[in-house]
Every structure is written in structure tokens, then in C-alpha cells.
Design goal:
211 residues, alpha+beta, BirA Bifunctional Protein, domain 2, eight-stranded mixed beta sheet, three-stranded antiparallel beta sheet, 35% strand, globular
Length: 211
Amino acid sequence: MEVLWFKHLPSTHKYLISQIKEKKLQPPVAIGCDFQSAGVGSRGNEWIGEEGNLFLSFCVKEKHLPKDLKLESTSIYFSYLLKELLEVRKSKVWIKWPNDFYIENRKVGGVITTKIGDTIIGSIGLNIAYAPNRYGVLDLSIAPRELVELYVDEVKKNISWKKVFSKYKVEFQKSLGYTFHMKGKKISLQNATLCEDGSIEIENKRVYSLR
């Protein structure tokens, strides 16, 4: 997967989507930058950060993802690949369902995924060096470009969903004391049940993680 790096982009996510739609770039490819001024977070929120943080978007063809991965759970899958990379380097980062990176009880980043035709776009924001109020910073120091290179190699390994999920379902217990947003409402995860495909059952509904 080729990695294209920029000094500044308003949003790696929006840039990659426009390049894919205009057929100026073809998957697999990754886009990173030193500074992002108008990034996209979950539920349409902005994810803005300072230089030294991670701003990454990448895309792959659907057929190149693990055959047992349900597309609605790609956020969990992509999140966990990065979490394991960081964990090997002694980070205590964990993933709150479905797509948020946490250190203890503070959010330090997140993943969003978008599908365009048969192309899956994943975008990651991670506070490595700086964080706004109420957010946290990763508990280890690593250069964003180095982390991107390592992460791209992980994505290329095409690790099965079964292998990822077997570890994630243990970590899911940490999410039960938190909330998530569904149709504009904040919902407690306290009584949520995690299903094998990465969705949860809550309030007699099946909820998937595609964001």
C-alpha cells in the first residue's frame, strides 16, 4: 500500500474520498499529514489536532478484506489492528465499542469507516502529542509517520476477523460502563450483549458499528 504524506490537509478523510470519486487515486493507498485543520469525527463532529498527532486515511477494496469480516464491523477491525500495534509497545490503550481509543477513562482517538462502491475507507485520528480539554493523550511516544508505516503493514496481513474478535470480546467488558450515540441519543452500554459479528444487542435492537 502506497503512503502519500502531506504537510497540511483540512481532512485526510475528505481528501481521500474526493480522490477516489474522481478516480485520481486507486486502492490500496494511504494518506497522512503533519497537521489537519478540519478533520471528520464520528456523527459529523470535527476532529482537529496539533502537529505530532496521527491523521490517517486509507482505502482497500472490499475483496481484499478478510472473508469472515462483516463490513459493518470494519471500524472495530481497523481499531483493533492499531491497538495491538500500540500494545506491543507497552501502551495501555483500549477500544470502547465501537470505534474509540481510550487511555483509562479519556478518549484519545477514534476510527470512522466509509464505503464507496466496493472501496472501504478507514480514517484514524489519534492524540499522540496534544489533546484538547476533556480528551487524553496516548501513553507512549511514536512518530506519526512511523506508526502509519507499521499500521499499513498490519492491514496488509489480512488477519482474520475470528482472530481479532477472539481478543476484542474480552476487552469489550470495559465498554459496559460507558455510553454510545444512537440516532442522536446517548445510550448506556451497561446491558449490551456483544454478538459474534461485532454488533451489539441492546434494547431489543441489533446495532452495528459502521460509522
